[in-house]
Amino acid sequence: MTVSAGLYCDIAVQTTRTTTMTVDELGFPKADVSAIREIAKRRTGLTLITGAVRTGKNTTVLAIANELQKLPIQIVEYSNPVEVRMGYAQKDYHGDINN
Question: I need a surface site. Which of 4, 31, 67, 81 has the fewest CB within 10 A?
């Protein structure tokens, strides 16, 4: 973005390894992997992934997205900003909820 003092940008550095993991590779116990898969199968509702900084929230949600990409469904992500380029449609709505 252009601002009065020049340019402003947000940056998030992710390694390819953490953005391409599957749910099986996260290291959770089998019961937790099953629960994550059941949550991912839901087609309505809202799932919140919460926790302290650097506890694996983004890695977990990206692993779920990687699992969902294998299904015959269409995924569109709306983010502000798009932090990680994935293999599905992503739109930066620039903070404007009308987008």
Answer: 4
